[in-house]
Write a structure and sequence with these properties.
The protein has about 55 residues and is an all-alpha fold. It has two helices and no strands. Helix 1 packs antiparallel against helix 2. The chain starts with 7 loop residues before the first helix and ends with a helix.
Length: about 55
Amino acid sequence: MKLTPPTFGVWLIALLLGAGGIAARLGYVPVLAPHAFWLVVAGFGLLVLSTLFARL
């Protein structure tokens, strides 16, 4: 299995999702607090998918 690095756009979206989840969990974005865990999971999942599949 050949792994490929994610594109900058996908990496940036994953970073924003993860940072948004962490900020929500810490109370900086209270409106996202109920979804903080799933934001972080979505960010990591997007990074994994973009590493496994080329051109994602």
